[in-house]
Amino acid sequence: MLLQRWKKGQRHLDTFWKSWRDDYLLSLRERTAYKLKEGRIQHRMKPQVGDVVLIKDDLPRGSWKVGRLCELTVSQDGEIRSGKVLLPTKRTLNRPLNLLYPIECSNRTESGNSEQTAENQRTESTGTKNPLENSSVTSTDRPVQDGRPKRRAAEKAIVKIRDWLDT
Hints:
Blueprint: H1 2-34, E1 52-55, E2 65-74, E3 80-86, E4 92-96, E5 100-102, H2 114-126, E6 144-145, E7 148-149, H3 152-166
Pfam family, one: DUF5641
Region (Disordered): 106-156
Domain DUF5641: 4-100
């Protein structure tokens, strides 16, 4: 009986990971490719230091590494060509932009107060007050990416990912 429950749990886990790899990561990659301006890979939103990205590798998409941009390399013509990515293991990798796929947890807001939002999120994750539990938080107070308000679950996931990357 215990073995059957374990096998059922493993099947559910495999289904989740397959869905993650096949649906979410593929759509994230396609969405990034859809927003390209030119033939070479270039996202319409310029990458910024602190963005969380997936790093393309010769592995299945579900096994790609996650990191945070810690430095951007600008070429002589003023274009951003590559970036240094800080991994959770504190290792840094130098990768071209076409191998980096931004994840939907940006500090950018419509008003452009990314520093203020980043500071607020640091306070939220370390302080005792959690505004995600406060029902008075409106969609105008939340960070907005591509003009859409974020779901509460997405905001909680962002906080967890940032905590994970900060440790």
